[in-house]
Design goal:
The chain is α+β, with helices and mostly antiparallel strands. It has helices at residues 2-37, 45-58, 64-85, 91-108, 116-135; strands at residues 155-157, 170-174, 184-188, 193-196. The chain folds into two domains: 2-108; 116-196. The chain is 54% helix and 8% strand. It has a four-stranded antiparallel β-sheet, with helices on one face.
Length: 202
């Protein structure tokens, strides 16, 4: 009887580990991301920015970078718990297994949202193009113009004292470090959009 009780405790601990370890994995990556942002002044741009962008797109529960290690840890602990429990399990053990399995399926379900960085970039382009369309009906462009994307980053305006019908010129451009990886959007007066990384050789 005592051995059966110990087996149940071990099973429970293994099941608990199968839940907690993936959670700790996510927390570890979040800490790594936070630490990486502190290294900006010590690393060259071509080293720092690709990693920053990788973190922005992958430290999210909807990416394989997050899901695969979680799945491996979960399945490993889950199978180990079943082996440890043997054939002496009762309804409570079975219920525990079902609960943990539901948690696993929830973790692995495709999320309806995308990483926030995708949304920031899409919103930035949308706001720039919207402003450009508005300015098409103004002959002499304003001296100053404030462009405010949703995430609040700064956008430079270069249309001062110009006419929208003049020879093609840069109308809007993201400020430095507006997006992960220091990606920039540059919108020209004719509506042409350029997406580039200043630190990459062009």
């Amino acid at each position: 009887m005592e051995e059966k009780k110990k087996a149940k405790i071990k099973t429970f601990m293994l099941m608990l580990g199968s839940i907690l370890l993936p959670v700790f994995w996510g927390l570890f990556l979040s800490f790594l991301n936070f630490f990486w942002h502190k290294t900006y002044s010590f690393l060259p741009d071509y080293v720092y920015f690709p990693v920053e962008e990788f973190f922005a797109f992958n430290i999210h529960n909807n990416t394989m970078f997050m899901k695969l290690p979680m799945a491996v840890m979960f399945i490993g602990f889950f199978v180990w718990a079943l082996i440890r429990n043997g054939r002496n399990g009762n309804f409570a053990d079975f219920l525990l297994i079902i609960v943990v399995l539901i948690f696993f399926l929830y973790m692995m379900m495709p999320c309806l949202c995308r990483p926030a960085e995708y949304a920031r970039r899409a919103n930035c382009i949308s706001v720039m193009k919207s402003m450009q369309q508005t300015l098409m009906y103004i002959e002499s462009l304003p001296e100053e113009l404030e462009v405010q994307p949703r995430n609040g980053h700064k956008v430079h305006y270069f249309g001062k004292s110009k006419n929208i019908n003049d020879k093609k010129f840069i109308l809007f451009e993201d400020a430095d470090r507006s997006h992960a990886g220091n990606l920039k959007h540059r919108l020209y007066s004719d509506g042409t959009l350029e997406v580039f990384y200043p630190w990459k050789k062009r």
